[in-house]
Amino acid sequence: MRMPDYTVTGDGKVTVFLLHGIYGSKEYWRAQAERLVARGYRVVAWDAPGYGLSALPERFSFDLVAEAGAALIRALGTGRNVFHGHSMGGQITPRIRLKVPDRVHGIVISSTIGYFGNRTKEEQEEFVRKRTAPPPPGTDPVTANRMIVDSMLGPASGGPEVDLVRYWASRTPPETVKAAVKAVQTMPEADAVAGFRAIDVPALLVAGEVDQVGHPAGMRRVADMVRGCEFAVVPASGHYPWAENPEAFNRHFFGFLASHFPVSK
To answer: What is the C-alpha to C-alpha distance for residues 88 and 80, in angstroms, rounded to an integer?
Structure first.
């Protein structure tokens, strides 16, 4: 498998890797990357296998995606590396660390379900149906995706950063969405739980207050598996808290980085 597509921004001794969700792109991190670079961090944002210019593997799985992430950090990592995995990215990040434990020094996870069994049967069925059902007649894939992305936002969310998420997330290929949803369903729960329990580096988990996907109660259960984990809830935010309420999200995010991974400009 070839290297995933990625961008590198900034220059510094601490690199922050940004991993998007099922509906995602390296491009929707632009504003957050700018903030990180302004604080002296180096940023690597990727398009996971199947996204952007990264080809969809014939046998997509989170373990395969984690292999790509491990290859990325081997090639681009610096002395200290922090992973921010959003949603699907939050499920993949612990698996990456298991593959390269000496290269991942800090973990931030936002808005993830953690593992499929962390949801009720009804929530599981709704998660799959919503993302794999045929779009309404006459609806193009971008519009169909945007309807789903919009449903994951908080009711009062808006602004240029939310628009950036909506634009890029809605352009996720439908076949990639289906492959990723299947990976969520089929990842063994024991493996997922083991990945979270194995985290022994500084970690922060962040939930959006009104997120129906990575909701606070489910993320709290995941946070309880991670020793010494910090946990925060972003007010009035849905599934994309770093874009919907960046001020509140970044109080926790940049506070975590400053505490554990300070940089001098």
So the answer is: 23
Q: How far is CA 261 from the centre of its chain?
A: 20
CA dihedral 239, 245, 249, 250 (to 10 degrees): 140
Q: Is it the case that residue 265 has pLDDT exceeding 90?
A: no
Whether 168 and 28 have beta carbons less than 8 Å apart is answered as yes
Q: pTM value?
A: 0.95
Terminal Cα distance for the chain, rounded:
37
How many Å apart are CA 166 and CA 27, to the nearest integer?
11
**Every domain of the chain and the residues it spans:** 5-260
Indicate the pLDDT class of residue 3, thresholds 50, 70 and 90: confident
| Tokens standing for residue 124 | 């599981």
Query: Which fold does the domain 5-260 belong to in CATH?
Result: Rossmann fold (3.40.50)
- Residue 264 pLDDT grade (very low, low, confident, very high; cuts 50, 70, 90): confident
pLDDT for residue 135: 86
Q: How many CA atoms lie within 13 A of 73 on its CB side?
A: 28
Q: Could you tell me if 82 and 105 are in contact, meaning their C-beta atoms sit under 8 angstroms apart?
A: yes
> Which pLDDT score is estimated for 47?
97
Q: Which two tokens stand for residue 237?
A: 């935010």
Residues facing residue 168 across a β-bridge? none
